[in-house]
């Protein structure tokens, strides 16, 4: 199997991730923050070390400003539903995942908020910062956007948007699902108020891990209430981070694995991840060449692409292409609509969907060339 679905979940993981989860489950799998015995203390220490590693990666001053979640979807819901108030306006983009669009739609249908969707200006899904600025109203409280599109891989202008959001006093939420571990994030320099990220993609952790960074001074309400291990004698939920957003037991074994993934990432370095993805993208584009019936919706320039190639073959549905790649060639890709309906509507691919190829660090040039040859063969019929 040639696995080219890393935008959904990275695979394989570094060996240290598997062993970290196993060791934790075997020797330290007590409930962190709930008891004072040795196993619980080791568990709490493991969770804290992973917080600290995340803080170092994203330049977060206080690791306790990071709340662990089960995935980026939970983090985005916590952020969107936690900071918005009745009468607020939100600016977002058509390139967003349903993890952003559905919470916004829910709040709008409930009559609580309104939002404006900024459209891309080309077939790769580029968003103009000036278009986002033009969409701001007097009651705009939040701008939310992805660091990179999960459909096309196009890197969106989150750094520029963060600057003018800060100047206008507007909260800025970044969905780092396709950026964390690959792109650079400095929450202070980039004026990021809230950063949502998954653990199981570029950070190389297990599924069931993720987190939300909340900048100091950002007022956020919890959307989940329960036990936290702190102030257990009170029925009022804690109002301090990270406890206010971590009701219930966190996924400590997964967080142990995430910590190992972050350790591996710090040794390899995001800059080397980008270099490897650049090499893989260039190998694919060189091998695919120009096939008239193959339409590509991703940037060939790796400086503008987080590591995705999306395409369609004229006259074919994306699901049929994906099935052939799987059953005939042993290549795993993602076909369909990628939980991003507005992106496909904007790109004009609502009828066919797109086939998404997303290489990871452990893929090879030979695998990318093989995938290109397979696509050329399918295009020839």
TrEMBL record:
Pfam family, one: Aminotran_5
Keywords per UniProt: Pyridoxal phosphate, Transferase
Listed EC numbers: 2.8.1.7
Aminotransferase class V domain location: 2-369
Broad class of enzyme this protein falls into: transferase
GO MF, one example: cysteine desulfurase activity
GO BP of this protein: cysteine metabolic process
Key word Transferase present: yes
Cofactor(s) recorded in Swiss-Prot or TrEMBL: pyridoxal 5'-phosphate
InterPro entries, per the entry: Aminotrans_V_dom (IPR000192), Cys_dSase-rel_unknwn_funct (IPR010969), Cys_dSase_SufS (IPR010970), Cysteine_dSase (IPR016454), PyrdxlP-dep_Trfase (IPR015424), PyrdxlP-dep_Trfase_major (IPR015421), PyrdxlP-dep_Trfase_small (IPR015422)
Catalytic activity of the protein: (sulfur carrier)-H + L-cysteine = (sulfur carrier)-SH + L-alanine
Similarity-based family: Belongs to the class-V pyridoxal-phosphate-dependent aminotransferase family. Csd subfamily.
PANTHER family in alphabetical order: CYSTEINE DESULFURASE, ISOPENICILLIN N EPIMERASE
Protein name: cysteine desulfurase
Lineage, highest ranks first: Bacteria, Bacillati, Bacillota, Clostridia, Eubacteriales
């Amino acid at each position: 199997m040639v696995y080219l679905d890393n935008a959904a979940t990275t695979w394989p993981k570094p060996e240290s991730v598997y062993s970290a989860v196993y060791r934790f489950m075997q020797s330290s799998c007590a409930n962190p923050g709930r008891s004072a015995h040795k196993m619980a203390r080791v568990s709490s220490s493991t969770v804290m070390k992973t917080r600290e590693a995340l803080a170092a990666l994203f330049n977060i001053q206080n690791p306790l400003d990071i709340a662990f979640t089960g995935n980026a979807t939970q983090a985005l819901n916590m952020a969107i539903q936690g900071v918005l108030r009745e009468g607020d306006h939100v600016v977002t983009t058509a390139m967003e995942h349903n993890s952003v669009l559905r919470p916004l739609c829910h709040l709008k249908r409930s009559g609580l908020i309104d939002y404006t969707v900024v459209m891309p200006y080309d077939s790769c899904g580029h968003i103009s910062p000036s278009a986002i600025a033009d969409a701001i109203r007097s009651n705009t409280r939040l701008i939310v956007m992805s660091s990179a599109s999960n459909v096309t891989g196009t890197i969106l202008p989150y750094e520029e948007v963060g600057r003018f959001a800060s100047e206008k006093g507007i909260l800025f939420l970044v969905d780092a699902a396709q950026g964390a571990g690959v792109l650079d994030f400095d929450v202070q320099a980039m004026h990021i108020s809230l950063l949502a990220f998954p653990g199981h993609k570029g950070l190389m952790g297990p599924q069931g891990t993720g987190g939300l960074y909340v900048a100091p001074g950002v007022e956020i309400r919890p959307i989940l209430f329960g036990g936290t291990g702190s102030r257990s004698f009170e029925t009022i939920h804690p109002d301090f981070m990270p406890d206010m957003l971590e009701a219930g037991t966190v996924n400590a074994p997964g967080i142990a694995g995430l910590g190992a993934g972050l350790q591996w990432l710090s040794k390899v370095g995001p800059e080397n991840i980008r270099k490897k993805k650049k090499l893989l993208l260039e190998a694919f584009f060189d091998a695919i060449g120009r096939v008239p019936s193959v339409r590509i919706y991703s940037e060939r320039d790796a400086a503008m692409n987080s590591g995705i190639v999306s395409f369609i073959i004229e006259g074919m549905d994306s699901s049929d292409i994906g099935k052939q790649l799987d059953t005939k060639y042993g290549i795993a890709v993602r076909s369909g609509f990628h939980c991003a309906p507005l992106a496909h509507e904007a790109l004009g691919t609502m009828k066919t969907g797109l086939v998404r190829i997303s290489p990871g660090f452990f893929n090879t040039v030979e695998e990318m060339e093989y995938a290109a040859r397979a696509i050329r063969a399918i295009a020839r019929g």
